[in-house]
Structure formats: C-alpha cells, structure tokens
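Notebook entry, structure prediction.
Reason for the run: the old model in the group folder had no record of what sequence produced it. Starting over properly, with the input documented here first.
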Amino acid sequence: MERSLFAFIWKYSKRDQLTLLAITLTLFPLLYLTLELPKRIINDAIGAKSGVIAAYGFEFSQIEYLTVLSAAFLIAVFVHGIFKMRINTMKGILAERLLRRLRYKLIARILRFPQPYFERTSQGELVSMVTAESEPMGGLMGDALAQPVLQAGQMLTILGFLFFQSITFGLAACALIPVQAWLIPRLQKQINLLNKKRVVQVRALAADIGEGAAGASTLRVNGGWRYQMAMIGDRLGHLFNIRFEIYQKKFFMKFINNFITQLTPFLFYSIGGYLVIKGEVTIGALVAALAAYKDLSSPWKELLAYYNQSADMSLRWDTITERFAPDGMIEEDLFYGTPTDIPSLAGDITLDHMTVRDGDGNPVLEDISTVFPGGSLIGITAPNEEDRRALAEVLTRETLPNSGAVILSGQNIKSLHQAVIAKRIGHATSRPVMFRGTFGKNVLMPVR
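New structure, fully documented this time:
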C-alpha cells in the first residue's frame, strides 16, 4: 500500500486532479465580478449624479446602465454557479472511483493474508474497515487538490477586493485569521487522536460481537454469558467516555471559532461606519465590503474543515493500512499475473529443519526434517488437529514456516507462483467453504 493517503490519491488520479484544478482557476475572475458589480450598481448607476452615464465607450441613461450592470451581475452569478456545479460533480465521480479502487485493493490484500492472521482477526473487523471506515475517505479523495485551491483562491479574491476598497477593510477582515489558524488545528488534533481511540474500540467491539455470535451456544451451555456481557458492557462504557470527551472538545472548538468569526463584523460596523461618516469611503463600498466578508467566512470555514478532515483521514489511513500489512503476506508478484511456466511438482517433498509457531510463539511443528518420495501414498498421524492442520497449511503455503524450508520437486515453496500451487497441489478438507451459488458454480470457480 502507498505510504500515505495523499500518495495514493496522486498516484491514481493525477490527471483528473490537475483537470479539476484548471477548471477551478476559472472561477476566481467570475467571483470578483460578483463582488465588484453590486458596488458599481449602487455607486455608478443608482447613485449617479446625472441622467446620462458614459461607460465603456458608450453613453447610457441611468435606467439603461442599471439594466446592463444588473444583467452582467446575473450572468456572472449564473456562469459561476454552472462552473461550481460541474466541479462538484467531477469531484464526486472522482471520489467514488478512488474509493472503489481502495476497497478493491484492500479486498485483494485480504486474499494474500497468511491463514493464521484470520485466527487473530475477526471477519467483522475486516468488513468494517473495508466498508464503513473507508467510506469517509472518499470525500477527501475528490477534494484533495481542488478543494484547498478553490477555498484559498476564493479567500484571496475576496480579501483582494476588500483591500482594493479600503486598506482598513482588508486589515479588519484578516485580523483574526491568524488566531484561528493557530488555535483551531491544535484543538482538532486532540479530537483526531480521540477519534483514533474510538475506531480501535469500535473494532474491538465488532470482534467481541462476532465471537459472541459464533459461540452463543457454548456461552449458554457453559455459563459464560455473564462474563461476556460484562466485557461488552465495559467496552461500551469506554466508547461512551471517548465520545463524551470528543463532544466536549468538538463543540468548544466550534464555539471559539464562531465567536472569533463574529468579532470581524463588529469591526466592520464600527470602523466602516466611522469611515463612511467621515466621507473616506462610500456607502456602496461599505455595503459591498459587508457582503464580501459574509462570503469570506464560508471559504475560511471550508479550509479549516478541509484541514480537519485531511488530518483525520490520514490517521484513519494509517490505522487501516497497518492492519492490512501483516507479516507473512504472499508477495504481490507471486499472486497476480500468469506465470511463464507451470512446473510439475510430482517429485520428492522435502522438509528441511522446518519449524512452525503459533501467534503466541509456541512451536506447533518443531525442527522437522524428512523426505516424502514422489509418487508414494503416505499417511501421517498427529496427536491433535492443530498439528495436522499446520502441516497441511505449510504444504499449501497457507502458512510459511518460521524457520527451515519446504522443497517441492527441488523448488522452494516460497518462490512458487500462487497459480502453480493452485494447479499442482490439491487439498481436500472435512470442512470445505461453500461460497454463494450452486454446488456446480463452486466446483467450476477456478476455471471461470
């Protein structure tokens, strides 16, 4: 797997991200027009000193000029909205494509997990990571490049407009932005760490539920349900405490952010009103500045939300990919594609000082050295089922030996392609897995 979420996004969507970026850049001139035209309408059309107005090389009556500017404003708003709609649609499609690829890759990695890993990890936990936990990543995948550029560009366009009207307006608009930029990410980091703890607890709860469902009969017959329910109750209590702490921090952060945001209009009303009274700026410029600042708060909030989301999703990526990279996975080049040769494995089977240990490090098969002659029929007895299963899993490479080697017809089993093992080695068990569909479909699955 890629080392980070953004490395994954860039690898599989570089061209689409750059296309989105190019379309996004066309929005900023249109945005500036939607800010400038209302001021022109108030000052130059409605507030004109004479009935005839000369503009753009033409002469207009006051009503005609008002109509032209209003129509231009309407067209700018419409085109700006069309472009934003197109960008959002493209981001949604891109997000779904990347999420589909991520889930496919995670499911493909599950097929390469060593068999003992499934004994320590519940199916419910794996399903949760592939479905529910990966779902929020889709939004960030579509927004990875276009969203910060769009919101930062809108902010800079609006700030440029405000500075153009008055230096004081521009300074008032951005005076408290550094405070928010310093404080909010620090609060969000604490929330992200709590969310990571919450994800770990939810996975553990899913594993407990899966064990309880699989062993419900055993719990009833042997009286273990009291302890099982007490353990689940304790787990739910931990989840409640984590969520309670998240809610406290999250809503405190929102209160601080909203309070700081509302301080800026106070500066506009007081300082801007003073400048209008003194005649240093026009009422149209003040109205346009207030409308522009109202639009400024939205991209700034979106930028903060993007930062919070990217930090949270990066942590989520790390927690998922960590669980999808167990030791003993089959190498990718030994699993995909078609091998150039399907060698015969009808020769001797050699176990050379082979040792297999369980997940706790205890030896299951220890320092076994023997040769099974090719073409012979051999029966093997073992004191328990775990030993028999371990030997069968080693001979089919479902488990790799911790030390020593398994040699089939002179070839180390570690270096064989999975297609060779599937074609040359048969394994019949007393508990076969039946997939959905008819018996015939299950039998014919390898050749479909």
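Summary: Strands lie at 52-55, 58-61, 349-357, 363-372, 403-408, 411-412.
The old model has been moved to the deprecated folder.
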